[in-house]
Automatic annotation (TrEMBL):
UniProt entry keywords in alphabetical sequence: Aspartyl protease, Cytoplasm, Hydrolase, Protease, Protein transport, Transport
Major subcellular site: cytoplasm
PROSITE patterns: UBA (PS50030), UBIQUITIN_2 (PS50053)
Name of the protein in its database record: Protein DNA-DAMAGE INDUCIBLE 1
Gene: LOC120267917
Gene3D superfamilies with a match to the protein in the record: Acid Proteases, DNA helicase RuvA subunit, C-terminal domain, Phosphatidylinositol 3-kinase Catalytic Subunit, Chain A, domain 1
Entries under PANTHER family matching the protein: ASPARTYL PROTEASE DDI-RELATED, AT13091P
Domain Ubiquitin-like, chain residue ranges per copy: 1-72
Naturally occurring in which organism (per UniProt): Dioscorea cayennensis subsp. rotundata (White Guinea yam)
Cell division recorded as keyword: no
Lineage, uppermost ranks: Eukaryota, Viridiplantae, Streptophyta, Embryophyta, Tracheophyta
Biased segments, Polar residues type: 343-369
Length: 410
C-alpha cells in the first residue's frame, strides 16, 4: 500500500510499504529519503506518536493515509546548529563542524565526494571552513543558474536565431566538458607536466646534459658551451643565419666534426652554433639518423648505433633547473646547405649568404627600449632570474603574459 509522510519542513514523501511493516522500518526508509536519522524521528498518526515496534495495520494505517514526521528536541537543536547564512556560511561554524565530525556517514561521504571540505571539517581553521562553505554555495548557485538557462533555452522559440545559437554553444560546451571528464578518468597524464628527454654525453671530453629532440632538424650547441668544450676555434662562420622556431636566435656558424661520447663509445658529430644564452646542447634529428638512434620510451633509454650503446634518460631531479628553458628552444627549419657553389666562392660570398638566410623578414628585436626593460623589471620582481626573464621575453617576442606563464610553468 502507499502512504504519505509530511515532514516538519512541509515536504511530502510517498512510500510504498507492506501493511504489516513496522514503524521502525518506515523510519529507516524515511532516513534514506530525508537523511534524518531514525533515532531523531517521531512518527504521528491521528495525533498519536507511534512506537518503533508498532505495525502499521495494528495502529489503523491504511492505503492512502497520511502520517507526520516530527523531530526530537535533540534533533531540532542539531538542525539549529546546521543552519546556514544567506551567503552559505554556517550560523554557528563550531557547532556545524562538531555535528559533521560526530556523524561517521556524513564524514565518509565528504571524504569521497569533497576531500577539501572533509579536511576543513577535521581541521582547526574555522575561517577556512566558512570560506569553503561560501565557495560551495556559489558553485551551487552557478550550477542552478546554468540549469535554469538550459531549461529556458529548451523552451525558447525554435525560430529565434539567437536562442538557437545559445543552444548550439551549450551543446558544444557540454561535449567539451564530457571530453574533459573522460580525459581526467582515462588519460590523467595529459594534465601533468611532461619531462623532456635528456641524457648524459661528453662533447670533446666535457660532460653535458644533452636534450634529445627528434623535432629539431639539426644538432645545436650554444656559443658558450662550444667555447667551454674548446670547439669555438673550429667555427665556420660561412654558415651564418637565423634559426626560427619558438622565437628566433642567430646562427653563428657550424662546427663540422667533433667527438662526442655516448655511454662508453665515441661518435663523430657536427653542430650548428647558436647565440642562445639558455640553450646548451640539443641532440637533433640529423645525428639521431646518422647514428641510427632509437628513442625507447618503454625502457626509457636512448639506443645508439642500432643498440650497441644504451643510455638512460635522466629523471627530472637530475636535470639542472637552469637548462629547463632549453626545452622550448625548438629549431624546426634550419637552412643547412653550403652558402655557395664552390670553396672559393664560399669564402667570397659569405656575407651575401648570411643576408640571404636572414631575408625572411624576422620580427623586430624587442629587447631594446624602456617598454622591454619595464617588462623585465616586472617579471624579475616576481623572483625570476634576469637572464631567464630576458630569454623568455625574447622567445615570445616581448609578450609579457606568455613569458610569465612560461617561467611559472618551468
Amino acid at each position: 500500500m502507499k502512504i504519505t509522510v509530511m515532514t516538519s519542513d512541509e515536504q511530502f514523501i510517498t512510500l510504498d510499504v507492506d501493511p504489516d511493516e513496522s514503524v521502525e522500518n518506515v523510519k529507516a526508509l524515511l532516513e534514506v529519503e530525508t537523511t534524518v536519522s531514525l533515532h531523531q524521528q517521531k512518527l504521528h498518526f491521528n495525533g498519536k506518536e507511534l512506537n518503533n515496534s508498532d505495525r502499521l495495520s495494528g495502529v489503523g494505517v491504511k492505503d492512502g493515509d497520511m502520517m507526520m514526521m516530527m523531530l526530537s528536541v535533540a534533533s531540532r537543536a542539531n538542525n539549529d546548529s546546521l543552519r546556514l547564512n544567506p551567503d552559505g556560511s554556517a550560523v554557528n561554524p563550531s557547532a556545524f563542524q562538531q555535528h559533521i565530525r560526530n556523524d561517521p556517514q556524513s564524514m565518509a561521504r565528504l571524504v569521497q565526494a569533497d576531500p577539501p571540505m572533509s579536511q576543513a571539517i577535521l581541521g582547526d581553521d574555522l575561517d577556512k571552513l566558512q570560506n569553503l562553505l561560501r565557495e560551495r554555495h556559489q558553485q551551487r548557485l552557478e550550477y542552478q543558474r546554468k540549469q535554469e538557462e538550459e531549461l529556458a533555452l529548451m523552451s525558447a522559440d525554435p525560430f529565434d536565431v539567437e536562442a538557437q545559437k545559445k543552444i548550439e554553444a551549450a551543446i558544444r560546451q557540454k561535449g567539451i566538458d564530457e571530453n574533459w571528464e573522460a580525459a581526467l578518468e582515462y588519460n590523467p597524464e595529459a594534465f601533468a607536466r611532461v619531462v623532456m628527454l635528456y641524457v648524459d654525453m661528453e662533447v670533446n671530453g666535457i660532460p653535458l646534459k644533452a636534450f634529445v629532440d627528434s623535432g629539431a632538424q639539426s644538432t645545436i650547441i650554444s656559443k658558450n658551451c662550444a667555447e667551454r668544450c674548446g670547439l669555438l676555434r673550429l667555427l665556420d662562420q660561412r654558415y651564418k643565419g637565423v634559426a626560427v622556431g619558438v622565437g628566433q636566435s642567430e646562427i653563428l656558424g657550424r662546427i663540422h666534426v667533433a667527438p662526442i661520447k655516448i655511454g662508453h663509445l665515441f661518435y663523430h658529430c657536427s653542430f650548428t652554433v647558436l647565440d642562445a644564452q639558455n640553450m646548451e646542447f640539443l641532440f637533433g634529428l640529423d645525428m639521431l639518423r646518422k647514428h641510427q638512434c632509437i628513442i625507447d620510451l618503454k625502457e626509457n633509454v636512448l639506443r645508439v648505433g642500432g643498440g650497441e650503446v644504451s643510455v638512460p634518460f635522466l629523471q627530472e631531479k637530475d636535470i639542472p633547473s637552469q637548462i629547463h628553458l632549453e626545452e622550448n628552444v625548438k629549431q624546426h627549419a634550419l637552412g643547412q646547405g653550403p652558402p655557395a657553389e664552390s670553396s672559393r666562392a664560399q669564402s667570397k660570398n659569405a656575407g651575401s649568404a648570411s643576408r640571404s638566410q636572414n631575408s625572411g623578414n624576422p620580427q623586430r628585436d624587442q629587447s631594446q627600449g624602456p617598454d622591454f626593460e619595464a617588462k623585465v623589471m616586472k617579471l624579475v620582481e616576481l623572483g625570476f632570474d634576469r637572464n631567464a626573464v630576458i630569454q623568455a621575453l625574447k622567445l615570445f617576442n616581448g609578450n609579457e603574459e606568455q613569458a610569465a606563464g612560461f617561467l611559472f610553468g618551468g
